[in-house]
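Query form — protein WSCD1 protein

QUESTION: What is the three-dimensional structure of this chain?
INPUT:
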Amino acid sequence: MAKALFRLQKFLRRTQFLLLFLTAAYLMAGSLLLLQRTGLGTQQGSRGTAAAQALPLLEGMPGDGMAEPGTLQSPRQAARLLVGMDTLQEPALEQWHSPRWLVSRNLELRQLRRRWFHRFISEQEPMQTVGFKAMKHTAEHKGTYVGCFSDDSRERTLKGAVFYDLRKMTVSHCQEACAERAYALAGLAYGAECYCGNQLPASAAKPEECNSECKGEKGSVCGGVNRLSVYRVEELRAAARQRRNVIYRGCFRAPENLTDTFPASLLQPNLTVEMCSEFCSKKEFPLAVIPGQECYCGYPTGRFPLRHGADGQLCSAGQAGYCQVYQTPVQDTRCTDRKFLATKSKVFVALSSFPGAGNTWARHLIEHATGYYTGSYYFDGALYNKGFKGEKDHWRSRRTICVKTHESGRTEIEMFDSAILLIRNPYKSLVAEFNRKYAGHLGYATDRAWRSKEWPDFVNSYASWWASHVLDWLKYGKRLLVVHYEELKQSLIPKLKEMVEFLNMTVTEDRLLCVENNRDGNFKRSGAKQKDFEPFTQEMKELIDRYILTVDEALRERNFTGLPREYVPR
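ANSWER: The structure tokens for WSCD1 protein are given below.
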């Protein structure tokens, strides 16, 4: 009996030790996971797997594989670049299991967790009504608070302009943005969304239903779930008038029947451009049309497409049958409504490009033409704040019309059923991506950055990626539509039609004209441009030109149109 008790006691001691060991191991694992989440790189909008994207360099040329600037290795002699598509080598097995690949995949997991976290927060915040009674529409806001209103996304009244800011939205920011665009009302929803217009929503809501705190202003209310906190901003419009941009679009032949073509008109003695623009802005029209001493407001339409301008002297001389056209601060709203697909898409479509090739701009065009959001393989908070709501949606949800990606490599490509492959002049792409890395989506890198060691290292690594990206998609892509950025920019409507048809969508002519009227969106770079100097050395040009010839030959072998002639010589 004593022997049995001794054995039992010995077993229990071992069990206690085992439990203690497992507990310690569990706590250590949790600590390591926490360190991984907070310690590793958190750069948003990561450009994908580096090792799999590099193309072997031409024999005798310096360079190395694709990597982020901070992780560039020293240049080394590389293998010969093979021109034939069938002779392209698969990435070595070691590349897929290298630490760099592991970091890339860990980054992807963190991005997925980030998406889940933002979605969870957005679902929970409207429910947190405790304490919101203390929030007030303070007097420091320059606009006049009107009330809380219901917001129907299908029949939105305040749709003149839309802004998002997931982190820094404030009441004052929304009011000023709407006033600068000549709107009388500013409405906020979900704590981060701003809507402008001139007509109050039809249905009022209970004050307590506007219960979302502004993301950038504690203690202030920015609407709620399907609820708008609405302010009048007329008193701000006079101060904002000086900052408004009224853009001269040119002299055009007037349509035969002006009253049928344009929905609003103004007849006033001593008419000025400012009078006409102000009148059309109040009516929420993006065009102010002035034939002689009359003022008409409207949109670009099939009757008045604004594609073929006339000699400006005809308008200056008051020639009958011609009119001056101005772009008001008001946004053309016929193509601004967007939503997620009601049912999952059966075809998984990629919008693939090398970084800096205009992917964001192409997404803007596609979303406004089709009315559906585009997704992204990455999560970029800056783009979400610009209105790309698909950034927060999981890239494999199939609720978006297509998915942005910069990935290459067989595995990543074969996940998609078809793809729009966007190609841009590598010289322009490299400059654009370098600007983005050092100054964000809309800024310019400083002269110091251009003249630093980072620039030649960047070119040596990224130039090979530009070529390998196209070659991989040509080799492994199942169904491709090749679009050249330069041709899309020059012939927007025909090329955009082609892209929309490839996505199996139909679009009206008026909606396409609306897209053309809003073609730039909010994506023109601002700030001081870099000075006029040639950033590419002769050695860089020789390297890039060889890649251009390789890609051009590969496109022609696949029966696609070769690269535009402007790419080479340089």
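ADDITIONAL NOTE: The radius of gyration is 28 Å.
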